[in-house]
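Following up on my earlier thread - several people asked me to post the actual chain instead of describing it. Fair enough. Here it is, all 104 residues.
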Amino acid sequence: MSYKCYLSLHVEQKKVSQKMTSLSNRIQLGQRGVSTLRKTLNEVESQISDLDTAKEIAKKGNQCEREVNIEWRKNSQNGKKKRRKTRVIRMSSLQRKYNEQIGT
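Reply from S.P.:
Thanks for posting it. Predicted structure:
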């Protein structure tokens, strides 16, 4: 193999290596994007679940505390879930006060 062919192959090998590195970086960037989207989706689903729970609790009026306690037991794994319980308790308390004011 001549020196010229060797050099040409070496240059081509470097180009291919650079393209592979570039593609690898693009794949990693895409994977980070997917991870971010999954995290956002989980947060949105959690918010929807919280809103659905609050809606159901508001509908049931007198059963609010019982349902809050059930929801609390299910969601007591981390601090975010503790804040959710506080919001639900506040909402149920407001619902009770409202019900008392309108005489139901």
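Residues 3-102 form one domain. That should answer part of your original question.
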